[in-house]
């Protein structure tokens, strides 16, 4: 969770040193190495199932992480703010990929995310207007 939760901030900071593609590669290589070390017992226990589905796991996992992170860091390279990218990521994640029914607190969370994006954009436009941009 730490690697996922810090992806937006590290992506914004990392754009000064690496391309989005290189940053994605090195960041997730480090995450994979550390998580593999920490989870080695579970990996060993599940190895027969993992080995049988290795090709599928590589294609689905690799393309999902690579595509998401390249788009994410590409947005940072074009000047997107961490706040807006984080909120949009949360909105898409909950709306599209969450394994939950859209009701109750999920709808409230989506409304709060959308309101946060709107407030952030409104504040940025107001600040730019005050500066005369």
Using the CA coordinates, give the radius of gyration: 18 Å
Number of strands: 0
Query: What is the percentage of strand-forming residues?
Result: under 5%
Output the helix-strand order: HHHHHHH
**Number of helix segments?**
7
Helix coverage percent of residues?
Answer: over 70%
How far apart, in Å, are the first and last alpha carbons?
39 Å
Q: Whole-number average pLDDT?
A: 75
Structural class: mainly alpha
What's the main sheet like? none
- The low-confidence parts are none
| Overall shape | globular
Give an overview of the whole structure.
Helix 2 packs across helix 5 and helix 6 (82-97) runs antiparallel to helix 7 (105-131). It is built from 7 helices and no strands. It has 133 residues and is mainly α. It has helices at residues 2-5, 7-14, 20-38, 40-52, 54-77, 82-97, 105-131.
